[in-house]
Amino acid sequence: MAKSNQSSAIPLNQSIEKALAVLRAFGGNRRALNLGEIATAAGVSKSSAQRVTHTLQYFGYVRRDAQAKRWVLSPRVLNIGYGYLSGHALIEGATSHLLGLNVATGESVSLSEPDDTQMIYIARFPSHRHFYIHMPIGRALPMFCTAAGRAYLSRLPIDEVSDILDRSPLRALTSHTVTDRKRILALIKEARALPGST
Fold it and tell me: What tens digit of pLDDT does each residue of 160-178 get?
């Protein structure tokens, strides 16, 4: 199961840890899963997956898809993310600027926030073109391979940049993804030298 990089003297609640791992098991090509697949993706036993899934079903966060005969997330999980987005001062302050830039350029404009080694999209105005890349709110991408991520890294001390890169699987997400560490560092250095970045 994925762990936070923050240490604590207070013992973790294992039931909550397992429930979060089960919720994180879904997504992408893992939209509908059976119990064995949930257990494998969450890193828990099949019996634990069954107990957690049953509890999440009771509270309405997962449901049984009768056609696929597998478990899927329910729309109720979006309520958790909405609690973060609603009243977010950064989003409220940036929205008019994002929209203005979107209208002026016709291009997709996004706002993202750092989360450990990733950038998470919290606002997005899509391109006016017929073809554009779908990037839903909540999508997380590695810092090393996004412009926003490299801009963020350019503001950090080099030892923090090295730590983030050390903990990031430098694998290609597209045919254009830069995965060479030296090249990534060069791109971060270029971002650091841009006007207004000091």
Answer: 999 999 999 999 998 999 9
Looking at the fold, whether 95 and 188 belong to one and the same domain comes out as: yes
φ, ψ at 163 (rounded to 5°): -65, -45
Amino acid 102 reads N
Segments forming the whole domain that contains residue 18: 14-75
Instruction: Count the helix, strand and coil residues of the chain and give each as a percent rounded to the nearest 5.
Output: 45, 15, 40
Nearest to 54 by CA among 35, 36, 68, 40: 35
pLDDT per residue over 176-187, tens digit each? Answer: 999 999 999 999
Cβ-contact 119, 112 below 8 angstroms: yes
Residue 125 burial by Cβ neighbours in a 10 Å radius (0-12, 13-18, 19+): middle
Q: Give the helix/strand (H/E) hosting 105.
A: helix 89-105
- Residue 167 within any structural domain of the chain: yes
| Tokens matching residue 76 | 């109720």
The reported pTM is 0.80
> Quick one: CA dihedral 15, 20, 26, 32, positive or negative?
positive
**Contacts (Cβ under 8 Å, ≥6 apart) of 69:** 34
